[in-house]
Design brief:
Shape: flat
GO cellular component, one term: axon cytoplasm
Radius of gyration: 46 Å
Protein name: Tripartite motif containing 46b
Keywords: Coiled coil, Metal-binding, Zinc, Zinc-finger
CATH class of the domain at 550-637 and 663-677 and 707-769: Mainly Beta
Structural class: alpha+beta
Number of strands: 35
CATH topology of the domain at 550-637 and 663-677 and 707-769: Jelly Rolls
CATH superfamily of the domain at 550-637 and 663-677 and 707-769: SPRY domain
InterPro entries: B30.2/SPRY_sf (IPR043136), ConA-like_dom_sf (IPR013320), COS_domain (IPR017903), E3_ligase_FN3/SPRY (IPR050617), FN3_dom (IPR003961), FN3_sf (IPR036116), Ig-like_fold (IPR013783), Midline-1_COS (IPR040859)
GO biological process, one term: anterograde synaptic vesicle transport
Length: about 800
């Protein structure tokens, strides 16, 4: 009894998985939507009709075996053989657009009718609102026709009903005479009918093809034996397209839309998917302790939710009481101020009324004045009349310029509570910060990773931020290792986190070179952590970062080149000599080339550095050169008079004859917002970590017989491999290779920059030195490799 009870208990726990998301009941004739969710066919039809789509022709659902026409007794002398009834699901799914009727007019773009021109309009695309997905799923112009029936789910439902005896209905034989109808004991999947034992033997005699029919349990809902293609009748689904994630028949496989897709035989897909599901199920079953612990944690969370909700409700009531008390206190204060103003103004107006009443003919001041005028003693009159004269003068002035002593309107005692009402209307619980927006223009990867972000304007403030990053597995070319499996394994790599980051930027160090890192940020305040920002991908440099400064003591022409105090920025300006030369040049162009080098010399290893060239520069050359050849350059005349000495060509006149030797210089020329990339040295297949990626010079820009131009990147990166004598130029923002050249590394090599005409450039500042005082260093020679980018 225990095993049987356990089976019933397990089957009852399946009920939640067998519910239709629309009717919330156990599914009947489920069909699979493109989103892989299953719904009842009737429910799906009702939802489509409710959304305004034409209703499909659905068959009546069989309630009892008596709904079938074949109910004659098997003992009659002549009995018609049972005909294979058309499957209800097939009749629905294979039914095309219904003919127009007065009760249901044909919608535009649905079906065809006489007189309709081809390609008159786009077909009607049906959208099904999938409840589990929470979005609309596109069914296409054929609606439910392309949705396959979920036979596996039907079998599970049938086993579930049989095990738990849920709503079991006696299935009667369809071929017994009604007074003697017996309960069916078998069902025939080929005849699609239910039989008792005698009728089954009668209609399936031994030695006939009918004896080979498949017999099943009696059912009211016969299913097809195999899935067939909804577009090609009777074609079995024998293939599975991994790209489209759908079953295909041999005819669907030949369609152009599946060209280049990975298509497997359905047996192979079945075996692979079954093995994956088995492994996943075994993993979950082997971690039942973890599941139980999480269930305990969730139940504790439910309890804490109830307790904390009560506490939050009390805090809410207390906050409202505090607001009410503050309002009452403020109301009393404002009322007192209003009463004081009323009393003061009333007293002023009452005094003014009393004064005006004294000016009446027989009252107050006028009566006193009349009696004063009766005085005949002149000295006494003069002594007493002076004060009266002043009062009368003031009264006359007040009569001529009459104003109220106080404003009775109280206009200034009206409250403007619009702002407070808005605040009260918007009064809400504290919100976590919204997802930060990462500033991709300021974020970069150099010697360290510098990440910068900001919060949206409507976001709640954040106390601090959490920065998370992880290394993404890459191979040369930037793809994930091992294709899809490599991507999945890389996705499982744990995130590393920087907690309680104040401000809106963070610096991440101790990273591996030539690697792609994924970064994201989220804010935190009293309400907890907010949403993550969109993930950004940063590629670390391919070699240790070389930190150097511009050497202002080596052949610098102060009248044509200006170097900043920090020795990281240089600008070419028209000096007096250039202006004088241009003033005398009437028929030819006189250009001046000025060279500027770094204060380091490289003798071994691989090194990377970056700089930015002002887009408005006329001509600027960026690259490397032999230290000895650069010294010879400074001893040559600075006017570019000889066409056989071109630093961009990488060799002088003597080196042109020695084609097998590497040139002493390697430069790229840029100017006026463009960069020139020679075609004879495209970077295709080197041994560098990024060599498998196609260079940016793939023919997209305007080309010429000897090269092409491309828009100048915001930052230009250079990587020198001293042992291989190779220089690779990158777009430093995306670290995509632009061009690759060779240089003679028989001696120390220095970074070099050449200005022709006006222009400006700036060396990329180290992230580690952004907030530190920079002190220019003396010229040094790098023996070991120099890097601020440590590998783990």
């Amino acid at each position: 009894m225990a095993p049987r009870f356990q089976v019933k208990s397990n089957m009852k726990s399946l009920e939640h998985e067998l519910h239709c998301p629309v009717c919330k009941d156990i599914v009947k004739q489920p069909v699979v939507l493109p989103c892989q969710h299953s719904v009842c066919l009737m429910c799906a039809s009702e939802v489509l009709v409710a959304n305004g789509y034409p209703p499909p022709e659905l068959p009546p659902e069989p309630n009892s075996p008596a709904s079938t026409p074949n109910t004659r007794s098997p003992r009659q002398a002549r009995r018609p053989t049972p005909k294979a009834e058309q499957r209800p699901i097939d009749r629905i799914l294979r039914s095309g657009p219904h003919p127009p009727s007065p009760s249901m007019p044909r919608s535009p773009g649905y079906g065809t009718y006489p007189g309709r021109r081809r390609k008159e309009g786009p077909p009607l695309v049906m959208m099904f609102p999938c409840i589990p997905c929470g979005r609309d799923v596109e069914l296409g112009d054929k609606g439910l026709t392309d949705c396959l029936r979920n036979l596996t789910l039907e079998r599970i439902v049938e086993r579930y009903r049989h095990t738990v005896s849920l709503g079991s209905v006696a299935v009667m034989c369809q071929f017994c005479k009604p007074p003697q109808t017996l309960e069916a004991t078998k069902g025939c999947a080929d005849c699609r009918a239910n039989f008792c034992n005698e009728c089954f033997k009668l209609y399936h005699p031994w030695g006939t093809p009918r004896a080979q029919h498949e017999h099943i349990q009696p059912t009211l809902n016969f299913r097809p034996k195999v899935l067939t293609c909804p577009e090609h009748d009777q074609e079995k689904l024998q293939f599975y397209c991994r790209s489209c994630q759908r079953l295909l028949c041999p005819l669907c496989k030949l369609r152009r839309c599946h060209t280049g897709h990975k298509i497997l035989p359905v047996a192979q897909a079945y075996q692979a998917l079954k093995e994956k599901i088995t492994k996943e199920m075994n993993y979950i079953l082997s971690n039942q302790d973890t599941v139980l612990a999480q269930i305990t944690q969730l139940e504790s969370g439910i309890t804490q939710t109830e307790v904390n909700s009560v506490s939050a409700r009390e805090q809410l009531a207390q906050s409202i009481r505090d607001l009410t008390a503050a309002l009452a206190e403020r109301h009393a204060s404002l009322t007192q101020a209003l009463e004081a103003a009323r009393q003061k103004r009333g007293e002023a107006l009452a005094a003014q009324v009393a004064e005006r009443r004294g000016l009446m003919e027989h009252a107050g001041l006028m009566a006193f004045t009349q009696e004063l005028l009766k005085e005949t003693d002149q000295p006494c009159f003069v002594q007493a009349a002076r004060q009266t004269h002043n009062r009368l003068s003031k009264a006359i002035e007040n009569l001529q310029h009459f104003t109220l002593a106080a404003d009775p309107s109280f206009r200034h005692f009206q409250l403007d509570v619009s702002k407070e009402l808005k605040l009260l209307t918007e009064l809400n619980f504290i919100q976590a910060p919204q997802a930060p927006v990462i500033d991709t223009q300021r974020t970069l990867a150099y010697d360290q990773l510098f990440l910068c972000w900001r919060l949206p304007q409507e976001s709640a403030p954040a106390w601090h931020f959490s920065v998370e990053y992880r290394r993404r597995g890459v191979v040369p070319g930037g793809a994930s290792r091992g294709g899809i499996r490599g991507g999945l394994s890389a996705a499982r790599w744990g995130w590393q986190r920087l907690d309680e980051v104040s401000g809106s930027s963070a610096v991440i160090d101790r990273l591996e070179m030539d690697s792609v890192y994924v970064l994201r940020v989220r804010g935190c305040n009293k309400a907890g952590y907010g949403e993550y920002s969109e993930e950004v991908y940063l590629h670390t440099p391919p070699a240790p970062v070389l930190n150097f400064y511009l050497d202002s003591r080596w052949g610098l022409h102060a009248d044509r080149l200006v170097v900043s105090k920090e020795q990281r920025c240089a600008r070419s300006v028209p000096g007096l000599s250039l202006l004088q030369a241009a003033d005398h040049a009437l028929t030819s162009c006189h250009l001046t080339s000025d060279l500027l080098v770094g204060d380091v010399a490289i003798t071994q290893g691989r090194h990377y550095w970056a700089c930015s060239v002002e887009p408005g520069s006329y001509l600027v050359k960026v690259g490397v050169g032999l230290e000895s050849k650069l010294q010879e350059w400074f001893h040559l005349p600075q006017d570019m008079a000889s066409p056989r000495y071109d630093p961009d060509s990488g060799h002088d006149s003597g080196a042109e004859d020695a084609l097998d030797s590497a040139p002493p210089f390697c430069f790229l020329t840029m100017g006026m917002g463009k960069i020139y990339l020679p075609q004879h040295n495209y970077h295709h297949h080197g041994s560098h970590g990024n060599s498998a990626r196609d260079p940016i010079t793939n023919g997209n820009g305007p080309s010429s017989p000897s090269g092409l131009t491309y828009p100048l990147p915001p930052r230009l990166g250079m990587c020198l491999d001293f042992e291989k004598g190779r220089v690779t130029f990158y777009d430093a923002h995306s670290l995509r290779p632009l061009w690759e050249g060779h240089v003679d590394c028989s001696g120390p090599v220095c970074p070099a920059f050449c200005f022709i005409g006006g222009g400006a450039l700036q060396l990329q500042e180290l992230v580690a030195n952004r907030n530190a005082d920079q002190t220019p260093v003396r010229r040094v020679t790098i023996q070991p490799r120099v890097s601020n980018l440590n590998s783990n």
